[in-house]
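quick one: zinc ion bound model?
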Amino acid sequence: MLIDVHTHITDKKFDEDIEEVIENSNCAVIINNGMNVEDNRKTIELGKKFSKVKVALGIHPYDIVKMDEKDIEAEIKFIAKQKIIAIGEIGLDFTYEEKEKQIKYFKEFLGLAKKMDLPVLVHSRKAEKEVVEILKEKNMKKVVMHCYCGKLEVGLEAEKLGFYFSIPPRLITNKEFQELVKKISITRILTETDAPYMGAEKGKRNEPGNVKQTVRKIAEIKGMSEEEVENSIFMNYQKLFS
Ligand SMILES: [Zn+2]
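yep, here:
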């Protein structure tokens, strides 16, 4: 029962072989995270076509920066009317400009998640501290920190707040992810791929089938069997998403 809680298989890189990618993944659940107006529509279509693909909708901070406020508001209204499993991808990315605009809409999405009683899948590049502070201030309970790359102490603060961490295959080659997995309780860990990004090897297309590699590495770090890790992650998934 492998789980990929954060992926972008609506990316062009999967146009040729999307069916094989999904079928060969061995994942019971693949949550595709919409990033913008077009991608949200593609995500909904993919969810209709494949039963194991679950739909999360949001606007990535990269797109928040580029979009008109009017269009952002319209998309939030659209998302509020859809049947979805989570709100995402949302968050803050301070490698981009317009911090105020990003914060404004991040908060608006958190309000929507609360209203719909759904988990949030959160991007937090170079803004981890701000993200955790806002989530705390908004009293968010169902949170997945996706590809968390911030300071360990901020990560541990997020763990204390009851947030989950979704770990990508990059874990295999990245010391920071390994350190995070060592310190965070197995009861707070989920798997993701962020496909086509965040594979073990930079620049190579990542896909949901690689979740198995992440489970193997987590088992090694935690001194657990792969089966135990797989079961724990499945239980964490069920607890958060149902
Ligand atoms: Zn992502």
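The domain at 2-241 is CATH 3.20.20.140 (TIM Barrel).
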